[in-house]
Write a structure and sequence with these properties.
Elements (H helix, E strand, L loop, with lengths): L2 E4 L9 E7 L6 E2 L4 E6 L4 E5 L4 E3 L9 E3 L3 E6 L29 H7 L13 H10 L17 H10 L37 H16 L2 E9 L1 H18 L6 H14 L6 E3 L2 E3 L6 E3 L1 E3 L2 E3 L2 E2 L7 H17 L4 H4 L4 E5 L18 E5 L3 E7 L2 E15 L5 H16 L2 H5 L2
Parallel strand pairs: 12-16, 16-17
Antiparallel strand pairs: 1-8, 2-4, 2-7, 3-6, 4-5, 6-8, 9-19, 10-11, 12-15, 13-14, 17-19, 18-19
C-alpha cells in the first residue's frame, strides 16, 4: 500500500514553502524517516522525511514549485528498490540517463564513476551539500563521504571540486549541468556574460523585511570603539583551560553576549519593543546571533542569555554555526529574539550601519580588530581596537540611551572583571 509524502507543519504562521530539491529519485529505495526532499521556507531549509520504508514513486511536484502545508508531493510504494537504476540522476525533470541499448552513450566513462559501493546509489544530500554539488557540476556518487554513516559533507564536495578533472569528462545524465551543452572553456577575451536566476524564498523574505524596517522604523546608528587588549589577554591565558574543562573554544562572542546582557539591564529600552501604542519591556534577554549559511544570513536565538555561563553561550553559538552550514536549523531556532548581535568582523568589515530586525528595536554590529595608535596617559600607543555600531529605532530609544548602552558595553569589554561582579 502506498504512503503519501505530505508537506509537514513548518511553524507558526507559515502556510507554504518552495520545493527546493528532491533528495531521492523515483525508484530509489528509502528508509522510514529518511529525507527525500528539501523545502525552502521564509527562514530555513526543511527536510521532508519518508513516511515509511519502500520505493519512492513519481515526483508529483517539481523543484521551484510552491507547496502548501499538508499538500501531497509524492508517494512511497511497497518494494525494496532493487530494480532501480543504480546511477544517481540528479538531473532536472525530463532528463534521463542514456538507454542501455544506445551504443553511442559514453559507457567507458560511466564504469569508473559507478565503481562506488551500491549504497552510493541512494545518496542523501543535505540542502547545503546539494547546493555545492549543483554549483560545481559534480557527480555525488563519485565522492567519498566522511560524515555520519558515510554521508557527504560540504567539505567533501569542495575537496572533490578542487581536485576534479575537466567538466567534459563527467558522464552524461549523471551530472546536474543546468545548461544543455557542456561547460565551455575559458571565455574569449572581451566576451561578456550574464546569468539570470530566480530569488530564493529566503532571499525574498530578507529583502522584504529589511526594506520594511527602513520604511517603518526611525533608524539611527551611533558608534564607539573598544580596546580589545583585556579580552585578547584573557583568551590567550585561559583558552586551553577553558577548552579542557568545557570541550569548547573560548571565543569573542561569549564576552560580547555577556556585556550586552549587562548593558541591557542598565538600559532596558534597548531590549524593548513597540506594540501599537504600547512599549513592551522584558526582564530577559533572548540574543539573536547573525550566522552565515549557504542560503543566506540566518539569525538563531540564544534564549535566556542572562542565565547562561560563558561555556553555555559558546556551546550554543558553535552548535548554531554547525547546523547553519548543514542546513539543519529549525523554525524554533529562529523564533523570538529581543536584541541582535551581528559580527561583520569575521568577513573583514571595519565599520557598518546594521539594520534592525523588527519587532526588535536595536542591533549591535561588531567589526574587525585592528591595531591602531591611541592616546593613553599622555602617550601614543598601539592597541587592538574594534569599532562597535548600534543601530536603533529612534521612536523608542533616545540618543542618550543608545550612547549609554555602548558606553556600558565598552566599559565591560575593556575591563572584563565587570562581567563577573555585575558592575
Amino acid at each position: 500500500m502506498a504512503s503519501d509524502i505530505i508537506v509537514p507543519t513548518l511553524g507558526e504562521s507559515i502556510t507554504e514553502a518552495t520545493l527546493g530539491a528532491w533528495l531521492k529519485q523515483p525508484g530509489d529505495a528509502v528508509a522510514a524517516d529518511e529525507p527525500v526532499a528539501s523545502l525552502e521556507t521564509d527562514k530555513v531549509a526543511v527536510e521532508v522525511p519518508a513516511p515509511a520504508a519502500g520505493v519512492l514513486g513519481p515526483h508529483l511536484v517539481q523543484p521551484g514549485a510552491t507547496v502548501a502545508v499538508g499538500a501531497k508531493v509524492g508517494t512511497i510504494e511497497a518494494g525494496d528498490g532493487k530494480a532501480a537504476e543504480p546511477v544517481v540522476n540528479p538531473a532536472g525533470p525530463g532528463e534521463t540517463p542514456a538507454p542501455k541499448g544506445d551504443e553511442t552513450a559514453p559507457k567507458p566513462k560511466l564504469e569508473p564513476r559507478n565503481a562506488a559501493p551500491p549504497e552510493a546509489a541512494a545518496l542523501t544530500l543535505s540542502p547545503a551539500v546539494r547546493r555545492v554539488v549543483l554549483e560545481h557540476h559534480l557527480d555525488p556518487s563519485a565522492i567519498k563521504g566522511t560524515g555520519k554513516d558515510g554521508r557527504l559533507t560540504k567539505d567533501d564536495v569542495l575537496a572533490a571540486a578542487k581536485n576534479r578533472g575537466a567538466p567534459a569528462e563527467l558522464p552524461a545524465g549523471a551530472v546536474p549541468v543546468p545548461q544543455p551543452a557542456p561547460a565551455p572553456k575559458a571565455a574569449a577575451s572581451g566576451e561578456r556574460r550574464e546569468e539570470r536566476v530566480p530569488m530564493s524564498r529566503l532571499r525574498k523574505t530578507i529583502a522584504t523585511r529589511l526594506k520594511q524596517a527602513q520604511n517603518e522604523a526611525a533608524i539611527l546608528t551611533t558608534f564607539n570603539d573598544v580596546d580589545m587588549s583585556a579580552i585578547l589577554e584573557a583568551r590567550s591565558r585561559y583558552k586551553d583551560l577553558f577548552d579542557k574543562k568545557h570541550g569548547i573554544r573560548l571565543g569573542f562572542m561569549g564576552f560580547f553576549v555577556h556585556a550586552a546582557v549587562l548593558a541591557l539591564k542598565d538600559v532596558p529600552a534597548v531590549n524593548a519593543m513597540l506594540d501599537g501604542e504600547d512599549i513592551v519591556y522584558r526582564d530577559y534577554a533572548d540574543i539573536s546571533v547573525a550566522v552565515s549559511a549557504p542560503n543566506g544570513l540566518v539569525v538563531p536565538v540564544i534564549r535566556d542569555a542572562q542565565a547562561l555561563s560563558f561555556a553555555g553561550v559558546e556551546t550554543r553559538i558553535a552548535d548554531f554555526g554547525k547546523r547553519a552550514k548543514e542546513g539543519s536549523l529549525t523554525m524554533d531556532d529562529m523564533k523570538g529574539g529581543t536584541f541582535t548581535i551581528s559580527n561583520g568582523g569575521v568577513f573583514g568589515s571595519l565599520l557598518s550601519t546594521p539594520i534592525i530586525n523588527p519587532p526588535q528595536s536595536a542591533v549591535l554590529g561588531m567589526h574587525r580588530i585592528e591595531d591602531r595608535p591611541v592616546a593613553r596617559d599622555g602617550a601614543v600607543v598601539v592597541r587592538p581596537m574594534m569599532y562597535l555600531a548600534l543601530s536603533y529605532d529612534h521612536r523608542l530609544i533616545d540618543g542618550r540611551e543608545a550612547v549609554t548602552f555602548l558606553v556600558r558595553m565598552k566599559e565591560a569589554l575593556e575591563d572584563p572583571m565587570r562581567l563577573l561582579i555585575d558592575l
